[in-house]
Amino acid sequence: MNPMLHVNEISSGYGKITILRDINFQVKENEVVAIIGSNGAGKTTLLKTISNLIPATTGKILFQGKDIVKFPPHMITQLGIAHIPEGGKLFANMTVYENLLMGTYNHRKNFQKSVLEEIYQIFPVLKKREKQLAKTLSGGEKQMLSIGRGLASQPKFIMLDEPSQGIAPKLVDDIYNKLSILKEKGLTILLIEQNINYALHLAERAYVLENGKIVMDGSSEELLNSEHIKKHYLGL
Amino acid sequence: METIIQSVFSGILMGCIYALIALGLSLIFGVMNVVNFAHGNFVMLSMYFTFWAGSLYKIDAIFSPIITFPLLFLFGILVYHGLIKQTLQEHYTIQIAVTVGLMTFLGAITQLVWQARPRALAYSIVQGTIRFGSYTIALSRLISAIISLIIIMIISYFLAKTWPGMAIRATSDDSNAASLMGINFQRTYALAFALGSGLTAIAGGLLMTFQQVDPTMGLRFGLLSFCILALAGLGSITGLVISGLIVGISESLAMTFWDPRARTLVIYLIFILVLWFKPRGIFGRK
Ligand SMILES: Nc1ncnc2c1ncn2[C@@H]1O[C@H](COP(=O)(O)OP(=O)(O)OP(=O)(O)O)[C@@H](O)[C@H]1O
Ligand SMILES: [Mg+2]
Fold it and tell me: How many domains does chain B divide into?
């Protein structure tokens, strides 16, 4: 079976600076795959390249068999890809409800309120804050809203950029519990993380990104037991 | 006392139209962070178009926006795609150069086509005055103010409740995040620019029901709208209306009690004071 996402020999960067070099990886349907790496490894750059917020200089990105490397960002989401960007990137001066509504933008011609009800069921706190401006939310609530907004587009495939970043440990548990609900619902997930324990407990497989290159991959168990990961990422 | 009230009242009426003009500038600036220095000249151009429609085709100034609004809307789209789009990634000085260039260009065109002579329409169906006790108000000014407020409310509603309006707000908060939602932000920018430009057509039509147009007006309306935007800051339409009223009233009082030629001076003074004491505006966010 074809993978859902197939990233093939992708390079990209900012201006003349190349950050990612010859990246290859795949995500199959219903799979949760993590990409882990430390600060500045190029994780955010990779997601931005998939969404074409920055253009790839070489390579192909196949989504369900179709090369999307030249698609503009707004058309990529229309294919059913949701990108939850680093730090949430909410619409700060819009309410929680309006942020979720913007998530349904692709389906605006036949908007269904039930989509939002489903998101409120996963994140009840968003229902409570419905009328509040997004900029007034706490860090954890912002992250949940960003995930909720991504889900509102009814995606087949969701890419998360460090959902644990800048959030108190207790709330990280909370967010990962929600993510495992999504996993059980059969959503295909690409998870970017520095927080390796969390990432590898949710994901089935992972790739390790260092200095813009993928240096390792394997099942989560293999990686958790590897000397390289233990030494460089878990400080054991 | 009576003169003061009379003067404040006519300031309020003018202020509503000023707020409408500034709303166009604010839409454009809020969404794409471009200060359109040619904005005042868009108003002036609209006034000349209204003059044409009136003198050549006998279209009443108050109805002229039916023709000039689509015209200016289209003009906005052309300017966006032809000039503004290419500068968005550039340093802001390039954007300033481009819109100041457009301002100069439009100024020169209007001088060529309509010469330096002031132009006015002889007649509008909205005329006469109404009396409130000992005060008299020109009906044309009153109706223009009311129409301005109605248009401002329509735009408010458009931004708050419709998909393209919400797309404009989302894009002004974060254009990348907006494109991740499926919004084509180039189209949103073009729409905001076209709308901002279209609003000057309505203002131009209203102004021509009671006043003349001459080639100095572009600069005056430009300065006026920068001043109102500086006072209001971004994000509050109510703040924009109040700022419009403040500018309208100050201008009117200056003309009544000081010198009619001091009107622009007063606006400039307010502008400077705001920049000194409240650089983010009085009503703006953050
Ligand atoms: N807009 C930019 N212009 C130039 N260089 C950039 C830009 N954004 C990121 N970089 C550089 O690209 C490299 C990779 O950055 P990226 O944000 O992808 O890292 P990351 O793995 O997401 O790190 P973090 O875990 O801190 O989020 C870094 O060296 C960074 O300095
Ligand atoms: Mg990052």
Answer: 1
